[in-house]
Design brief:
By secondary structure, the protein is mainly alpha-helical. The protein is 64% helix and 0% strand.
Length: 122
Amino acid sequence: MQVISVTQSEKKVDTNLLVFTQLSQLLTYVTGFGGFIVPLILWLVKKDEIAGMDVHGKYIVNFQITMILIAILSIPGILLFGLGILSLIWVGIVSFVMPIVNAVKASKGENPSYFSTIRFIS
């Protein structure tokens, strides 16, 4: 007698949740810090259930941590050289544009791409 073990490890495909996760980063402009917390919670809760959530979540967390670090390091740059203002403007623009671009990619089923991001979680 032969026993066959079949594991059901298929994940659901939910591009709407991936799009929402990407766009939830924009909560930073409303709440100040929600753009990091909400995607982090969605990623931690749904990474084993939704196809692509693990990849999107890691990219989002790495991107948000990188933007926070650049913003923090820009503050002394304002006081010392005045160039910190340029990097804060850059962080503001990139933090607004990249989630929208990657939400469109998520709706098409593509992986996200964030440039100039330090990979803390791989």
